[in-house]
């Protein structure tokens, strides 16, 4: 994710320019979580999802609930007398577990399901929920994003369960099939590759499937008056962009940048990790761009705002592209590992600007160093970020996880050298491909590859209240934190 509230972004740009728990049979139905430090109630214990198959019927009005069926294939990892799913924003009509009708109740942000028979550990668990999926209003926490011509999805950090019942935590990745029925004139696109398109009277039904496992927060379904444009990336990679039909021609010069950006990223970290890529350009003011897997979400205005220099817009495109490796293919085990997503995406965003537009990274990093103590005071240290505020779950996306964390990577490169740093980056994305990883995994790999115990270095940089001295730049200073 990259926050983009319009005015602050221009201001910032000008500034840069100048410079487990078991479910007991007798326990009451209650919301459960897996104890994420930042979102303790999200995710659920006792099962591991392997497949989601989600059908939506769109009625041509983004102010009305969609009809939906969510089928979940999972494996029980403990005895389950009750099964908690995360789901908060629709009406549930029926639930079956392993083919038999189940009782259910909504508790907090959970849908608590009581199967007719308890499920044993290791046993397959097939859950079918018939429900609606309500796109209203949802501004603060997101989930469905209402666009001018339909809907898109923005589920980060934990809003997928506002759209469909799920185990809504990035530690439980699964394969997804999306089936969307929409009236004439609309086009539906989702993550992954198309597998079917059928006409049903006046409506069309599309189906897409992911070739790789995906976190719920990275799901994307676009329904709109869209054009779908195809081009080829490196080694024949299908590049598919989804844009408002009326803007297709005007947006093409931007879309043409993607294949070269993919080649550039592959040169840095190795092969692109998924089956396809492309931009979803939506007519909506979300206030951010988002790395939804294989199909990154962008606001149309990013490409239309004359105040943004070309190099800047391209570096934002690279930010979301870099997330396909860092955040999507290798996704965070917990939300406290968010710095690994955003620190790397900011790193490649900044490196691209240096190599392609002569915007030195050292200059940006020196500015980040100056602000670093204040960023830590505001958002906590990079790997122990402060909890979300009342402004919503996306309030964890503070400056410390962006430039404050790219700065950690800069310090690391200064400490171990550019060659070792690049080897670490390449090994990281290949070792943890299609999986989840933690901060401790990153520290361990860096130490292994360099033959040095880097735990002290990382402790100071990732968990310190104050920014440690920058290796090789003893003159860099962090501004004192102003007290209000
Ligand atoms: Zn990001």
UniProtKB/TrEMBL annotation:
Domain of life, per the record?
Bacteria
| Cofactor(s) the protein requires to work | Zn(2+)
Q: Where is the Peptidase M1 membrane alanine aminopeptidase domain?
A: 271-461
Hey, what's the signal peptide range on this chain? Answer: 1-29
Question: Per the UniProt record, which EC number(s) apply here?
Answer: 3.4.11.2
What is catalyzed by this enzyme?
Release of an N-terminal amino acid, Xaa-|-Yaa- from a peptide, amide or arylamide. Xaa is preferably Ala, but may be most amino acids including Pro (slow action). When a terminal hydrophobic residue is followed by a prolyl residue, the two may be released as an intact Xaa-Pro dipeptide
Q: Which Pfam families match?
A: Peptidase_M1, Peptidase_M1_N
Sorted keywords for this record are:
Hydrolase, Metal-binding, Metalloprotease, Protease, Signal, Zinc
Q: Which InterPro entries match?
A: Aminopeptidase_N-like_N, Aminopeptidase_N-like_N_sf, Peptidase_M1, Peptidase_M1_aminopeptidases, Peptidase_M1_dom, Peptidase_M4/M1_CTD_sf
- Aminopeptidase N-like N-terminal domain: from which residue to which, for each copy? 155-216
Q: Does the keyword Ribonucleoprotein apply?
A: no
Key word Nucleotide-binding present: no
Mind telling me which PANTHER family this protein's record contains? PROTEASE M1 ZINC METALLOPROTEASE (PTHR11533)
The similarity comment for this entry is:
Belongs to the peptidase M1 family.
Q: What is this protein called in UniProt?
A: Aminopeptidase N
Organism whose genome encodes this protein = Streptomyces endophyticus
């Amino acid at each position: 994710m990259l926050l983009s509230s319009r005015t602050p972004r221009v201001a910032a740009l000008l500034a840069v320019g100048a410079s487990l728990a078991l479910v007991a049979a007798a326990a009451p139905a209650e919301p459960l979580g897996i104890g994420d430090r930042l979102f303790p109630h999200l995710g659920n214990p006792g099962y591991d999802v392997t497949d989601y198959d989600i059908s939506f019927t769109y009625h041509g009005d983004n102010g009305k609930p969609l009809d939906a069926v969510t089928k979940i294939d999972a494996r029980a990892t403990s005895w389950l007398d009750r099964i908690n799913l995360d789901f908060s924003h629709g009406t549930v009509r029926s639930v079956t577990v392993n083919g038999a009708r189940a009782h259910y109740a909504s508790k907090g942000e959970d849908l608590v399901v009581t199967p007719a028979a308890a499920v044993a550990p290791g046993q397959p668990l097939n859950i079918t929920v018939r429900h609606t999926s309500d796109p209203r209003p949802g501004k603060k926490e997101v989930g469905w994003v209402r666009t001018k011509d339909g809907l898109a999805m923005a589920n980060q950090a934990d809003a997928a369960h506002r759209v469909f019942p799920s185990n809504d935590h990035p530690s439980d990745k699964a394969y997804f099939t999306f089936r969307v029925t929409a009236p004439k004139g609309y086009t539906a696109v989702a993550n992954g590759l198309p597998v079917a398109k059928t006409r049903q009277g006046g409506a069309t039904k599309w189906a897409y499937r992911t070739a790789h496992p995906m976190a719920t927060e990275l799901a994307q379904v676009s329904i709109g008056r869209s054009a779908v444009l195809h081009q080829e990336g490196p080694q024949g990679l299908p590049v598919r962009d989804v844009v408002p039909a009326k803007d297709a021609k005007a947006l093409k010069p931007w879309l043409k940048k993607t294949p070269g950006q993919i080649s550039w990223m592959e040169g840095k970290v190795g092969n692109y990790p998924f089956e396809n890529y492309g931009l979803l350009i939506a007519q909506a003011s979300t206030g951010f761009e988002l790395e939804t897997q294989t199909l990154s979400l962008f606001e149309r205005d990013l490409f239309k705002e004359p105040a943004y220099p070309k190099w800047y817009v391209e570096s934002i495109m690279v930010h979301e592209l870099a997330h396909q490796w860092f955040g999507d293919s290798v996704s965070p085990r917990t939300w406290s590992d968010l710095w690994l997503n955003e620190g790397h995406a900011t790193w490649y965003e900044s490196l691209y600007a240096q190599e392609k537009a002569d915007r030195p990274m050292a200059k940006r990093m020196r500015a980040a160093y100056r602000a670093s103590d204040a960023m830590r005071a505001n958002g906590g240290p990079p790997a122990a970020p402060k909890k979300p505020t009342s402004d919503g779950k996306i309030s964890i996306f503070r400056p410390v996880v962006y430039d404050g964390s790219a700065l950690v990577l800069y310090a690391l490169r200064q400490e171990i050298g550019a060659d070792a740093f690049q080897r670490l980056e390449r090994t990281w994305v290949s070792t943890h491909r299609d999986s989840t990883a933690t901060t401790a995994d990153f520290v361990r790999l860096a130490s292994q590859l360099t033959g040095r115990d880097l735990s002290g270095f990382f402790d100071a940089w990732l968990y310190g209240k104050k920014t440690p001295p920058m290796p090789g730049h003893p003159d860099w200073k962090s501004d004192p934190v102003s007290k209000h």
